[in-house]
């Protein structure tokens, strides 16, 4: 995968993800549609690939306005990752030369790897996660829209302990996926399934689309490092 191809796939994914998010705000309180209607138009332009560098820049400015409007990333990590993707796309488009464009877009891939590894490290040093109690509490007490049947999983500590270790090992070992093409494909497949499960179980649908949007950067970086031109 070439750098332009990876950037184009990232832009299409981001445009579709932002379009879905923006449509949710059209019936929101006064003032929000003013920010999200232009965002919808920009997303359409980004998906079709019209003036992509300037559309990326306009979406980046729009993202800053939304930060001011909601006094920070109101959707947490998903909003932060979205703005990071936009920042790296803008940087790569307006970089002074091809080498700098590669460095900037490669930074996105590095941050994606760290997002998994750091998350796994934070979990594994926490005794509650190692014992499965943290995951049990998520099902038993959290405000996530888990169904009553799913809340019953809190009564299966061995299953949740195994699930906790599966998540932690996947996140901690994720950097090793860069060693070969097949391992990376397998890791990204597991990662997509992980985010899909979070979307279905806990309603964290924005993490699914935003993290998948960043995957082309990692595919490009792995090929660029292992098979340099």
Outline the structure in words.
The chain is mainly α. The chain has one domain (3-226). It is built from 11 helices and no strands. The protein has helices at residues 3-23, 32-48, 52-69, 77-93, 98-124, 127-130, 133-141, 148-151, 157-173, 181-202, 205-226. The longest helix has 27 residues, at 98-124. The model has no long low-confidence stretch (mean pLDDT 87).
Shape label = globular
Helix content: over 70%
The tally of structural domains comes to 1
Strand content: under 5%
Largest sheet: none
Q: Tell me the structural class.
A: mainly alpha
H-E string? HHHHHHHHHHH
Number of strands: 0
Overall mean pLDDT score?
87
List the helices and strands and how they pair.
Elements: H1 3-23, H2 32-48, H3 52-69, H4 77-93, H5 98-124, H6 127-130, H7 133-141, H8 148-151, H9 157-173, H10 181-202, H11 205-226
A few lines on this structure:
This protein is mostly helical. It is 78% helix and 0% strand.
Quickly list its features.
single chain; 229 residues; mainly alpha; 11 helices; 0% strand; globular
